[in-house]
Amino acid sequence: MNHSSYTSNNSSISSSSSSSTSNNSNTSSEFEPDQGLIGSLFREEGHVYSLAAAGNFLYTGSESKNVRVWKNFKEFSGFKSTSGMVKAIVVFNEKIFTGHQDGKIRVWTFLDDKRGRYNRVGNLPETKHLLLKSLSPRNYVEVRRKRYAPWIKHYDTVSCMNVDADHGLLYSGSWDKTLKIWRISDSKCLESIPAHDDAVNSSVLSSDGMVFTGSADGTVKAWRREFVGKRTEHFLVEILLKQDHAVTALVASPAAVYAGLSDGLVRFWEVEKRFMAYGGVMRGHKMAVLCLVVAGNLVMSGSADKSICVWRRGGGGQHECAVVLTGHGGPVKCLAVEKETLAEEEEEEEEGGKGQRRWIVYSGSLDKSVKIWRVFE
């Protein structure tokens, strides 16, 4: 029988002098005493591989094939899948999408009843679409040596997913080296891009319609999206990075795109009007960077060295690792963040410029726990 728990913790935070090599910042960092580790979530379901925060709900995916749902830091519900480990979770409106080790994408919805139940409402691709594509030999592509499968289906681990809310699209990257684009309204696969020469580990969408993919082949690629009628077409614009170390994480802010690498570095590119300009490298970890998240002017990187670096972006693209969050007993595999809900008086003070934004950060680890942090911008 599985048991879950929530533990309140004292702050566990240390200052750091690590900075980006492109620009050094002399900004001093002073943090409030109530910043740092505020609690831990634990359920005996194995390593935590994926997180998604949506309102008062936190969704956690683990090697148990299950998704656990937490509400206000307490266990609320969950749903079981017969697919493999849950490697990616995204939430869009009333739907929850989960990407699995066996290449399947499941679609779930909350029934909103007293029992807090979730119901599986579909798969990507849907069975009817898969059968239609299976009828014609031209819809088959070689997925392994002398092995063929319909192009609309992932045949290896779904490692990352992103939602384009404006256009109702879901992007899924896989260890099968492809990036697929799905129309959420009818669950159709619009396009499959043979994006890399090795596993796609991460993908991210920018506000100007660009798509970035990072791979175990050591490259970061930038793709431009165009709409042709009801279809989408993506064109390779630029290879931002090409080196020996695997790209393990990507994240984008309005100002830059960040890539976490297996050698422990974070590289970034500044968003210019018509191109991406290399910004530099951020050194703060001793082992591979496994996940990245952006919150306002902060960039957070989780690593196999069990720590989380909180980078503050300053003027001119300066980055200072102002705080290192420690407390996990295993590699930090995933991060999620949301703005902390404040009391009405605090919100008014913040809007008036007297306060500063607070963020709640969730970190999932291979130590089988999720930790909850409070970070001030």
UniProtKB/TrEMBL annotation:
InterPro entries: JINGUBANG-like, WD40/YVTN_repeat-like_dom_sf, WD40_PAC1, WD40_repeat_dom_sf, WD40_rpt. It comes from Perilla frutescens var. hirtella. Residues 1-29 have a biased composition (Low complexity). Residues 1-32 are annotated as: Disordered. This is Transducin/WD40 repeat-like superfamily protein. SMART domains: WD40. It holds the Pfam family WD40. Keywords: Repeat, WD repeat. WD repeats lie at residues 151-192, 193-223, 282-311. It comes from the Eukaryota.
